[in-house]
What does this fold into?
Amino acid sequence: KIAEAGMPDHVREQAERELARLERSGEQSGESSMIRTYLDWLLALPWSQRSEEQLDPAAARDVLDADHTGLEDVKDRIVEYLAVRKLRRDRGVEDDKLGSHSGQATILTLVGPPGTGKTSIGESVARAMGRQFVRMSLGGVRDEAEIRGHRRTYVGALPGRLVRALRDAGTMNPVILLDEVDKVGADWRGDPSAALLEVLDPAQNHTFRDHYLDVEIDLSQVVFLATANQMDTIPGPLLDRMEVISFDGYTVEEKVAIARDHLLPRQIRSAGLTPDDVSADESALRLVVTEYTRESGVRQLDRSLGKLTRKIATEIASGADRVVVDTDVVRRHLGRQRVFTESVERTAVPGVATGMAVTGAGGDVLFIEAAAMTG
It folds into this structure.
């Protein structure tokens, strides 16, 4: 197995040394099972496996457009990234030793409110590049050994998340999404964000050492994407290695398009209906967006459409005919209006002025009222 694994020379020598120890230690010693587990982990890594990359910017753009509406900045940046890699490969540009290994000097970090599609764009990027996709959730991780692994001397030691991610992907060049990078905590067990510094630095990560395996692993082929809800809690040195792409919320037009092209067809399928049973006109979708939801992402919108399709499914299961969703259907199933935009009527009265506030859903208008009193 070691001969067939295609390991780099220094790893193969280490594996053969451990194998010799295993042969000397005999079946009964406790040491032998530890060495076996270690060798199994060394063999589990896909040392010689690589995905064949698709570096066609136009095709990648099509994949991204098919999966997501809006998010132009993000798509542009990803297509530029692929175009640069394609030109470097086609023209044989050598990697300079200043650390931009294969042109990967940036970690793209997607920062934006919940429900705007940060995690799902990671999968699209992997699909567009023809690579495997692995998601590593870092929310609430407080132990540095989660990233780097435990030393082998400990009972029940395991490699870190990165080694496991490579094993799960089955290739040495997957797209690894570091989800919720802003929620990494630090306590007496070390600071995981400090361990990530080495991983995300292209000048260092071709010699990444996991504490458990204790051999150098080349992570320079991996495309790292990170997601976060806010930048304030990402530690400074980590932020310094990232290129931040801000996701702003969607406009009403974009939300209507997302509901029409992505959310509604998915909810119709999950409710056991077909497009022949139910169809929706744009005005009805716009009504749901403007009067029943208030958010920067589309999660609430997805839930409202789910509620709508379930109620329609109930009608159709009871023998109703095809349903066309219009204003009346929305009002009947979703109840009264939830979100009001009242600024025009309120400020028509003397003594009322408007102020502005930043909220989690983007923003809001405050009404400041003056009242006359006898002095």
Remarks:
- The chain has 14 helices and eleven strands.
